[in-house]
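**Polypeptide and fold**
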Amino acid sequence: MDKIRKIKQGIKIYDTTLRDGEQMPGVVFSPEEKINLALKMSYFGVDIIGIMPAVSYKEKEVTKKISNMGLESEITAATMLRKDHIDIAAESGAQRIILFTSISDIHLKNKLNISREENLEKSLELIDYAHKLGLNVDFAGEDATRADINYVINFINTISKKVDYFLPCDTLGILTPFQTYKFITKIKQNCNCNIGLHIHNDFGQATANTLAGLEAGADLFSGTFNGIGERTGNAPIEEVVIALKVQYGINLNLKYEMINEISKLVEEYSGVMLQKHKPISGRNAFSHESGIHVDGILKYPKNYENFNPAIIGRERSILFGKHSGKCGLRYLFGNKFPDKVLDSILENIKKRSQLEKRSFSKEEITNLYGNYDEGNRKKLGSLDEIL
């Protein structure tokens, strides 16, 4: 409970679906799709929407349009340490800028070919340049979790009075939740700066690591809807905010009922189909076939559901298949059929499920067996003939 109390009620959400999310190979949002997503995300309640205007002329134009829409969310321009890119960010109308540079020795040596000192000096120079253009500045330290922690702390403390948030990025998702907690705790203990999280999902721990970082005192987390992003993606916003709500009792100022709508839009626009078993937004998250589970759900939903799916704009789904029991059929048909008929229907559903290697919706089962009449086989045919 001590850790749970450390999580702040006023956590901010930095939505990078339109920037890091679109960097997922094969994902390209049209300008109209970006505008619609920005509208939805802002109405949902994210605090910051990130976009990268220097990508192209069209990206600069769509950033201008989104920045001029009067959204509640702040629009921030993700920007490399280059004056010309900072100029583009300023011209795009974004309210703030998030500058980024690598801070691990691996990247400094093998990517940027500069020293730690040169990297810090350049960062200070361009932070000041962005301020002169009237931009509020946040800063992201790429690959910070593989960097020398002392350099990370020194870097943050050197620029802390010039930036609103510093995000020490777990760019390769290399940390475990326990390591993330220790990492953010050490930074919070040694730095006087608002700290954000930007965590990738390379080892499938982005949600857990984000929650661990928030437990350690982080003030903001970055993520994308559906977890899309570079390589294996980012922390899924929907997973983090629902975990905060249900597991930690942290209710953010969000319209949670929009989660399903936004998730479906991102799936449609990105072309990245969700795994059926993905937490929160996957098709199977609130689907039940097993007879034991269906019986439990129908008696008391919390037997097998952590929360009411209506909270996120979804509905429960009772399916029928190889593992079904009669309780599901009674839920569907009421007292229409005696046990003998239900036994026959169930046997045939199991056969059909085995044959087709799938489950069936209640609509399919109603269409197949809803008019079955044990006493009028000649007219309707036997269940075996229906198969």
